[in-house]
RNA sequence: GCCCGGGUGGCGGAACGGUAGACGCGAGGGGCUUAAACCCCCUUGAGCCGAAUGCGGCUCGUGUGGGUUCGAAACCCACCCCGGGCACCA
């Protein structure tokens, strides 16, 4: 009987599904384990990245199930979004039918991998019974003042013809199509994530099982700065506010800078002697993208002709326009303190502006701006104080004078969720000439996405051209009104979908809070590192909102986060555009899903990028062939008492159980597989040397149990062939016997001056004295030691003796 | 510029401060076969020595240079290179 992966794999996939092995309900009698792989965009075909992700996820589902956990592992589809719409524009296929075709192809492929989910809970964000609750959530946020519409300069992608969230702009380019992003003033919908900035930042501390770099990235993204905002008077005109983290250095302010877009600029330069120059500078700044501005490096600017009054010293200082000050951060205006800020230093030196140090640098200081702590100087009533004291003092002074107050600034902006695209969840709001913005009543949800003919974006949502959709009546006054035509960012869907898995068919509520109360938080969340700030930050935010609404019992959704590395080939990420893809479906046919799964587990540390080896799957296939032969073939047993060989192979098997268990718990699959290979190799040798039935049966039993979460199809088939009636997936994960796992003999290495000179087999229980005596007694060691004085002997029995000689 | 990772055979990678290179891939040799594939066995970091056929031994070797230690791929210092993240954020 040969190993026919095709029939075995389809047989077991069918059985797992029809016997509902991985369908679960809340069960208070068992510990729960909520295991989620980030739900995929239905691109139409799975790639090796999916295989890696789902292999890890499925291994964990099966392993934890065997350990007695009530494991929920659901699957769904992030099925709204631009690719489906762009495909519709290119090929004329409706996004809905296109998406649904791709979902059915992909879910068939995921099943072929043998990755098991509770398909009963499958969700897809493009379905009305899902996006209805997007809209419901939007309205809840609106009622809480957490959703608002505002005119703001936004990131506009000229190719996709839609706005982008800050998080979707990478190096000034659209994250989807790499088109340079431009700024545009538009009225858009925002979620007020900044209200949660402190909580999102503080709770990062609790995420101890998250990768450190993801936590750092989120911390940087939120970008909290503590300081003060105060007002600066302009000679003969208005005043303006500045934010600074160094109010203690205000005596050293020798100029001010406004961003070119600052609203006060126009009135300051109008009629000034530098007006022409200033207007040219502003126009040039507008033409440039942010990347170009940064690329220049050199600080440039123009004097406005106006002067500001330093509020503490009364000094008159010039006001400049310079593009190194950004309108999008703080107040768009700064006090410039060249003595303590390197950028200001560079600007001051270039334009011949005074520099006053207000912090005493060390005597040997030969740098430019001095940023570290020191005694305050040249600062009247702050003199002699250190930075902390000086900050307290000056902020108190500003509050007394009513010109300033302590402030916290964030780099994080509110989350822009409007998209001028078709394939998304419509924003459930109505514009009425009489009542203004009116929310659609929750009973009226969902606001259905209508079928339309033309998806080509023309600067506004394609929905805007559909009169039947747009024209409606006002829920408040019954007068004529128009609908919002923007749709929501798909990251809104993905920020709460994992709650819906707990109660996916609920038609009267987003979910019954009792259900996620059992399952949440997600014990293990697995996905790509590319979501480090986007999805993972939004999801944390929405979870906190749900918590505040009383719908979630947890404030943090993901206890453990695992981010897998990419699969590369020839040094580049495997991708269609680079033409270096290896289709998993081909490998299902040629080698089988089990071989492919094992290869992904074996290829390297799960967090690291891994290079695809075209022959790698051959290797894991060979291993499975050996296992097959070993466990399914006829074995000539010898009827005899237990011997040394039997105890040895059982010892290996139990040590393997220990190692594999520890490795899985530490996500070190790449060392668990070799342990199984070694066991199989030793078992083969054992069998060839005259096995005893009881020993053989036990070793094979342990091996199949361990193989079950990794290569489930073949393991199940062999389990059944060997006469077991109950399915392998339902067995307990094996425990190892410390007694059996302990080795009797071990190789002790003997070093002379730290260099290995001999090895000797010793009993594990050897005493230090015996070890030293044995080591010194070895002929080879005598040869090294003779004629030298032994200065010291280091004994680490039973593994090592090191003899230190002259 | 700042903050994280990481540099180990031909390749992917192993290695509680204690036998560097597990396991796998590839390569070379041999067996089986009419032949090939599959499969099985042996060899496989570099250099060298003694024997004489598969035996034994030595030196070097984990990016570079120093250090700590009986002992360093691992710890410390400096530097080089690669990957990622952040970046006029006041």
Describe the protein's architecture and organization:
The chain is an alpha+beta fold and 806 residues long. Helices cover 37% and strands 20% of the residues. The protein has 27 helices and 32 strands. Strands 10, 11, 12, 13, 14, 15 and 16 form a 7-stranded mixed beta sheet that branches. A 4-stranded parallel beta sheet has the order 2-1-24-25, covered by helices on one side. A 4-stranded antiparallel beta sheet has the order 6-5-9-17. Strand 10 and strand 11 form a beta hairpin. The structure holds one RNA strand of 90 nucleotides.
What can be said about the biggest beta sheet?
A: 7 strands, mixed
Number of helices: 27
Strand fraction: 15-25%
Q: Quote the average pLDDT.
A: 91
Shape: globular
Question: What Rg do the Cα atoms give?
Answer: 34 Å
Q: For this entry, what is the oligomeric state of its chains?
A: single chain
How many β-strands, per DSSP?
32
Class per helix and strand makeup: alpha+beta
Short description:
This protein is of the alpha+beta class and 806 residues long. The protein is built from 27 helices and 32 strands. 37% of the residues lie in helices and 20% in strands.
Using brief descriptors, characterize the structure shown.
four-stranded parallel sheet; 37% helix; globular; RNA-binding
Topology:
Elements: H1 5-18, E1 32-37, H2 48-66, E2 70-72, E3 76-77, H3 82-91, H4 95-112, E4 123-124, H5 128-143, E5 147-157, E6 162-164, E7 169-170, E8 173-174, E9 182-191, H6 197-202, H7 212-222, E10 225-234, E11 239-244, E12 255-258, H8 265-269, H9 275-287, H10 290-296, E13 301-309, E14 316-322, E15 333-336, H11 342-351, H12 387-400, E16 404-409, E17 415-416, E18 418-419, E19 429-432, E20 436-439, H13 467-470, E21 471-473, E22 480-483, E23 487-488, H14 490-494, H15 497-500, H16 514-519, E24 522-528, H17 535-548, E25 558-564, E26 567-569, E27 572-573, H18 584-590, H19 593-602, E28 610-611, H20 616-632, H21 644-665, H22 669-688, H23 693-707, H24 712-721, H25 738-741, E29 745-752, E30 755-763, H26 768-777, H27 779-785, E31 790-796, E32 800-805
Parallel strand pairs: 1-2, 1-24, 3-4, 12-14, 24-25, 26-28, 29-32
Antiparallel strand pairs: 5-6, 5-9, 7-8, 9-17, 10-11, 10-13, 10-16, 12-15, 13-14, 18-23, 19-20, 19-22, 21-22, 26-27, 29-30, 31-32
Helix pairs in contact: 1-24, 2-19, 3-4, 18-19, 19-20, 19-22, 20-22, 21-22, 21-23, 22-23, 23-24
The chain binds one RNA strand of 90 nucleotides through α7, β11, β15, α11 and β28.
């Amino acid at each position: 009987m040969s190993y026919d992966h095709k029939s075995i794999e389809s047989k077991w996939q069918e059985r797992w599904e029809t016997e509902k092995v991985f369908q679960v309900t809340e069960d208070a009698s068992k510990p729960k384990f909520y295991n989620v792989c980030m739900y995929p965009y239905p691109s139409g075909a799975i790639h090796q990245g999916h295989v890696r992700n789902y292999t890890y996820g499925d291994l964990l589902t099966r392993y934890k199930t065997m350990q007695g956990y009530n494991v929920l592992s659901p699957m769904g589809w992030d099925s709204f979004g631009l690719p489906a719409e762009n495909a519709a524009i290119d090929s004329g296929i409706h996004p809905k039918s296109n998406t649904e075709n791709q979902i059915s192809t992909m879910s068939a492929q995921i099943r072929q991998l043998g990755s098991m989910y509770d398909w009963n809970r499958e969700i897809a964000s493009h379905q009305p019974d899902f996006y209805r609750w997007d809209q419901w959530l939007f309205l809840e946020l609106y009622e809480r003042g957490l959703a608002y519409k505002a005119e703001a300069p936004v990131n506009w992608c000229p190719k996709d013809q839609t706005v982008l969230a800050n998080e979707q702009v990478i190096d000034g380019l659209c994250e989807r199509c790499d088109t340079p992003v431009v700024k545009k003033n538009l009225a858009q919908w925002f979620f007020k994530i900044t209200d949660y900035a402190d909580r999102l930042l503080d709770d990062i501390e609790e995420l101890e099982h998250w990768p450190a770099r993801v936590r750092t990235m989120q911390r940087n993204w939120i970008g909290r700065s503590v300081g003060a905002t105060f007002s600066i008077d302009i000679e003969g005109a208005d005043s303006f506010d500045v934010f600074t983290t160094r109010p203690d250095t205000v005596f050293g302010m020798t100029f001010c800078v406004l961003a070119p877009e600052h609203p006060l600029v126009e009135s300051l330069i109008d009629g000034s002697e530098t007006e022409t120059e200033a207007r040219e500078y502003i126009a040039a700044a507008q033409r440039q993208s942010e990347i170009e501005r940064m690329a220049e490096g050199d600080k440039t600017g123009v004097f406005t002709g106006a002067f500001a009054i330093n509020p503490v010293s009364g000094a008159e200082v010039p006001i400049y326009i310079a593009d190194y000050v950004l309108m999008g951060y703080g107040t768009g205006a700064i006090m410039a303190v060249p003595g303590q800020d390197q950028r200001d230093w560079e600007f001051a030196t270039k334009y011949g502006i005074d520099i006053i140090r207000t912090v005493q640098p060390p005597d040997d200081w030969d740098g430019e701006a001095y940023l570290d702590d020191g005694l305050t100087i040249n600062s009247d009533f702050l003199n002699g104080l250190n930075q902390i004291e000086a900050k307290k003092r000056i902020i108190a002074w500003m509050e007394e004078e009513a010109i300033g107050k302590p402030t916290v600034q964030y780099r994080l902006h509110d989350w822009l969720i409007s998209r001028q695209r078709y394939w998304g969840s419509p924003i459930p709001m109505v514009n009425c000439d009489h009542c203004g913005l009116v929310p659609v009543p929750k009973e009226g949800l969902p606001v259905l996405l209508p079928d339309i003919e033309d998806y080509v974006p023309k600067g506004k949502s394609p929905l805007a051209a559909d009169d039947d959709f747009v024209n409606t009546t006002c829920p408040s006054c019954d007068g004529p009104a128009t609908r919002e035509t923007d749709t929501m960012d798909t990251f809104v869907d993905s920020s709460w979908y994992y709650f819906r898995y707990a109660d996916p068919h609920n038609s009267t509520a987003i979910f019954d809070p009792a259900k996620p109360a059992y399952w949440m938080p997600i014990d293990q969340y697995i996905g790509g590192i590319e979501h480090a700030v986007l999805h993972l930050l939004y999801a944390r935010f929405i979870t906190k909102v749900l918590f505040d609404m009383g719908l979630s019992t947890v404030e943090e959704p993901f206890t453990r986060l695992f981010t897998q590395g990419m699969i590369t080939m020839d040094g580049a990420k495997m991708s269609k555009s680079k033409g270096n893809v290896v289709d998993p479906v081909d490998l299902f046919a040629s080698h089988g899903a089990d071989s492919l799964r094992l290869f992904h587990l074996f290829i390297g540390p799960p967090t690291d990028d891994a290079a695809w080896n075209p022959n790698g799957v051959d290797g894991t296939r060979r291993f499975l062939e050996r296992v097959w032969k070993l466990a399914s073939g006829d074995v000539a047993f010898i009827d005899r008492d237990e011997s040394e060989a039997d105890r040895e192979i059982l010892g290996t098997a139990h040590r393997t159980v220990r190692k594999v268990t520890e490795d899985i718990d530490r996500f070190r699959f790449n060392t668990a597989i070799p342990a199984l290979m070694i066991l199989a190799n030793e078992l083969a040798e054992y069998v060839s040397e005259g096995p005893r039935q009881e020993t053989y049966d036990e070793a094979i039993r342990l091996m199949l149990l361990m193989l079950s979460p990794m290569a489930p199809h073949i393991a199940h088939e062999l389990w059944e062939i060997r006469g077991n009636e109950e399915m392998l997936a339902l067995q307990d994960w094996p425990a190892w016997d410390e007694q059996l796992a302990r080795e009797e003999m071990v190789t002790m290495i003997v070093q002379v001056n730290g260099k290995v000179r001999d090895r000797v087999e010793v009993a594990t229980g050897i005493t230090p004295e015996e070890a030293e005596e044995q080591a010194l007694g070895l002929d080879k060691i005598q040869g090294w030691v003779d004629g030298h004085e032994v200065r010291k002997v280091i004994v680490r029995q039973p593994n090592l003796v090191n003899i230190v000689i002259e």
